[in-house]
Every structure is written in C-alpha cells, then in structure tokens.
Amino acid sequence: MGRQAALLLTAPPCILCGGRERRRLDEETRIVRAAAPRFLVRCLRCGLVSVHPLPRSDELRSLYLDDAVMQQYREAHGRAYVMGDLEPEPHLGRRLEVLEGYLGGPGRILDVGAGSGVFLALARSRGWDVAGIELSRPAVQAARERFGIELVHGPMEENNFPNAAFDAVHISHVLEHFLDPLQALGEIRRVLRPRGVLVVEAPNEFDDFFGNTRSLLGRPRQPYEVPSPHTYFFTPWTLRGLLARAGFRTVRLETRRRNPDTSSRLPLGGWVKRAIYALEEILRRGPLIEVFAVPAHGDHGRADNHA
C-alpha cells in the first residue's frame, strides 16, 4: 500500500457526508499553491474539497494574526468589503434588500468576519441594529474609528451571543476559512431566530463554467498570486449540502460574476465570453456562490424560484 493510500485511509470523516475515501487533487493543489506536506483532496462520496491534513487551530489563527501575510493576501485579492474601503460595493445593498424582503424590513443582524465594518455601516444606515465579530484587532479598531461600531474580537466558536439573538446572520468569504465550517454553522443556527435568515457568500473556485471551459481549450488556471489560506473549497452543491446538514433550508441560491471582463484579442472573442457568462448564470456555475437559507423548521413559506 502506497503512502498516498495510507494517508487517505487515515483521513477523518468528511464533515458533509462522513465518507473517508479521498482523491488527491494535484492540479488544484498547484493552483492554490498549497505548501507541502499539505495538498487538496476531494471526498469520493460527496465531492467536498478540502486541505489535507488540516492545519492546527493555533497554526491557522497565527496566520490570520500575521499582518504582513494578511496584507499580501488583501493586495492580491483587492476585495473592497474585506479590505476596509470606506464605500461598500453595490451588491451589498442589493443583498440587504433581499434580506429585508424575507424579514419584512430591517431587524438585528450579525456579520461574522465583519472586517472593518463597511457592511454593518451600510446596514445601520438602512435601519438595522448591527453587531459583528472579527478576528483581526486592526479591523476591530478600524470599525470603531471609522464607523463607531464596536465589533466583538475573537473567533465565532468562542462567541457569547445568546440564543436566538439575531434576525439575520451574514457571512461573506469567511466560511471557507474555518477548520470546521459545520461547527460554525451550528453556532450561527443557535444565535439565529427561528424565522431568521442566513446569507452566505463563498468562492466557487474550481467549478465555475468559464474557468473550466478555458482549461478544456488548453488554457489552464494560473496559480494564485499568494498561497490560499482556505481550508475548504465549495461548489454550489456542496455548500447547499453543508447548510442542510447544519439545519438550514436553502431558499435562494445564485452564482455571480461581478464586473465581468469581456475584452479579447480574438475576433468575436468578447461575444464568446458574454455567451459563456450567460451559461454560467443558467447553470449556476459562476465564480461566486450566494446563498440565502433559513432554519429548516422555521415558518418561512415556500422557497423562491432561485433555489
């Protein structure tokens, strides 16, 4: 029996389906620049992709507390909300509109991984009562200084929020960083009211239609500019399945491509890109996954036609 087979046999049960058999993903490992001895694996039963072996909790926390590492990561990704820009991106306002539609108006919202408070400042301006939790001390300080918002400093697993304290919970580009996202979702389920709404955004890193089409045409994905700190790599289907296992029912699922690039050096290349982007929406295989979910036993009526 080879070393790889032995590693897979000793892997812990999959958090989504409980399966133990994994397949090593060398190409995906190259793309995210995972450092040895870690590599990416896919569960052979449900398809969930994760890092193997997972880092220790203290190892992961030290990574996020290293300002130099996080600055490099932020500069490579350039995400306005996470990076602490003063102006929120337009999609965040639309997201709040959807939440208000489900709830009948603003309520009390918790932002998990609140960054420097940009999203919460926007929510507050619309009449929401806001709270947030954030691991980075500089981000907590920035939220206080820029917006007068006091975030709770620390990991979600150690929060002291009471049961059923929030009408909505928002977690954007954070769930894929947890060592145990199922446990994190359990905590979110605990603090969410029975008729509350959870909204999750996560990257669809290896299943987006455009990226896979380029690979089939001989243009493989390029390695990330900096090594990825993600521990899990979701598709729309594995994320929806994980939410279901945590006690949530999906009521809206979309995959987004914001600011699509239609430039091309080839004749009609821009039109080809537009066609591929349209197929991404139809197939729900865009690069960003946005899910609205509710507690499975809450009285929320029927799921809408986006689910």
Q: Can you put this structure into words, describing what you see?
A:
The N and C termini lie far apart (44 Å). The chain is an alpha/beta fold and 307 residues long. The chain is globular. The protein has a domain of 210 residues: 3-Layer(aba) Sandwich (Rossmann fold).
Fold topology:
Blueprint: H1 3-9, E1 22-25, H2 26-32, E2 39-43, E3 49-52, H3 57-64, H4 67-77, H5 80-83, H6 90-103, E4 108-112, H7 118-125, E5 129-134, H8 137-147, E6 152-153, E7 166-172, H9 181-191, E8 192-203, H10 209-216, E9 232-233, H11 236-245, E10 248-256, H12 269-283, E11 288-295
Parallel strand pairs: 4-5, 4-7, 5-6, 7-8
Antiparallel strand pairs: 1-2, 2-3, 3-9, 8-11, 10-11
Fill in the keyword field for this structure.
307 residues, alpha/beta, Rossmann fold, seven-stranded mixed sheet, four-stranded antiparallel sheet, 11 strands
Strands side by side in the biggest sheet? 6-5-4-7-8-11-10
Helix share, percent:
25-40%
Describe the global form: globular
Within CATH, the superfamily of the domain at 80-228 and 235-295 carries the name Vaccinia Virus protein VP39
Derived from helix and strand composition plus strand pairing, the structural class reads alpha/beta
The name of the CATH architecture of the domain at 80-228 and 235-295 is 3-Layer(aba) Sandwich
Oligomer: single chain
Order of helices and strands: HEHEEHHHHEHEHEEHEHEHEHE
Low-confidence runs: 79-83
In round numbers, the mean pLDDT is: 88
- What is the CATH level 1 assignment of the domain at 80-228 and 235-295? Alpha Beta
